Amino acid sequence: SYLKTILKDKFMKICVAGAYGAFGLKHLDALKNIDGVEVTSIMGPTKEKIEALAAERGINHSSTTLEECIKRSDVEAVILSTPTQMHADQAIACMEAGKHVLIEIPMADTLEDSARVVKKHRETGLTCMAGQVRRFNPSHQWIKNKIDAGELKLQQMDAQTYFFRRTNTNAKGEPRSWTDHLLWHHACHTVDLFQYQTGGKVVQAYGLQGPLHPELEIAMDMSIGLKAEDGAICTLSLSFNNDGPFGTFFRYICDNGTFIARYDDLFDGNNNQIDLSNVAVSNNGIELIDREFISAISEGRTPNACVTDVISAMETLDKIERSIS
To answer: What pLDDT, in 10s, does the model give residues 203-243?
Structure first.
């Protein structure tokens, strides 16, 4: 019993905020697969639901407020899986409380709020990472490794992000209190990934959008064009009006082959699956991003997808937004 207590004290103690949501649950599942981690607190908006989840998962503390969670001495780091509009203020509050923070994508829904997060990170020196999971999906890692080794050069990325969401529903199909956004959430994945794979900032960016939804007051269809410093281009189509298979699908057109990435799977241009078993310790992108967050804290190093790096994608999104309006 004493030995167990000593070992448990060495665990990194984490709070998952927004734990009852679709991605909060994905993080809880991922953290179970990582050694040296203990989820000591979870936060959710509904007392009955979050208490039931804590009991089900064997988590000692639950709350409906982040403030209560980050006051606790048994919370060292926080994973924010909360509504987008809360991300900036909550990330800043976590860092002010001395907690490292991983912010689910996007880190904010404006460039101004993203800059506030970066400023607080620099003031505190705490780990502050944005949840750019595409950097970690084994499919995209395989491409990145080939590019870095000089075996591939990206000429064009074609991405399709399609959902059928004409009401405020989450990935579990349940109602939610906030409105999702094609540009500041879903396009954020591809804009950051394109800059990451090409190794530089976008030099040209524009957007086109369809009519606004009369109730949600957001564009339901969008098209984005990007050009990288090295000449590679990206075409991104997004829709909440797609009545059919949904998700995000990437086609990499390179100088030495064409590749199609579907989340954690990769195929060549003729739809032959590529073996990704040796790319990473897991084929789960969420688990891989959590592993990076935890190891960066433990090793005292800057993580891949630190907010100081991801801010360049937010600058591109801001440029696109201004081109639309």
So the answer is: 999 999 999 888 878 889 999 999 999 999 999 999 999 88
What is residue 56's three-state secondary structure? helix
200 pLDDT above the threshold of 60: yes
73/6 Cα distance (integer angstroms): 16
- Exposure string of 196-232, with b = 16+ CB inside 10 Å and e = fewer, is bbbeeebeebebebeeebeebebbbbbebbbbbeeeb
- Residue 181 banded pLDDT, cuts 50, 70, 90: confident
Q: Please count the CA atoms within 13 angstroms of the CA of 201 that sit on its side-chain side.
A: 12
Length of the chain: 325
Query: Within the chain, where are the H helices?
Result: 2-9, 22-31, 47-57, 66-70, 87-96, 111-124, 138-148, 188-198, 285-299, 307-324
The yes-or-no verdict on residue 3 having pLDDT over 60 is no
Tokens of 168: 């405020």
Backbone angles phi, psi at 145, to 5 degrees: -60, -40
Q: What is the DSSP string of 153-174?
A: -EEEEEEEEE-B-SSSB-TTS-
Q: Are strands 202-209 and 221-228 parallel, antiparallel or unpaired?
A: antiparallel
Give the pTM: 0.92
How far, rounded to the nearest angstrom, does the alpha carbon of residue 231 sit from its chain's CA centroid? Answer: 26
Q: Are 95 and 121 in contact (CB under 8 A)?
A: yes
* Cis-peptide into 106, omega within 30 deg: yes
Residue 163 pLDDT greater than 90, yes or no:
no
User: Residue 45 in 3-state DSSP?
Assistant: coil
Confidence bin at 312 (pLDDT 50/70/90)? very high
The type of residue at 213 is H
Question: What is the DSSP secondary structure assignment for residue 224, as one 8-state letter?
Answer: E
| Closest alpha carbon to 316 in 228, 198, 217, 219 | 228
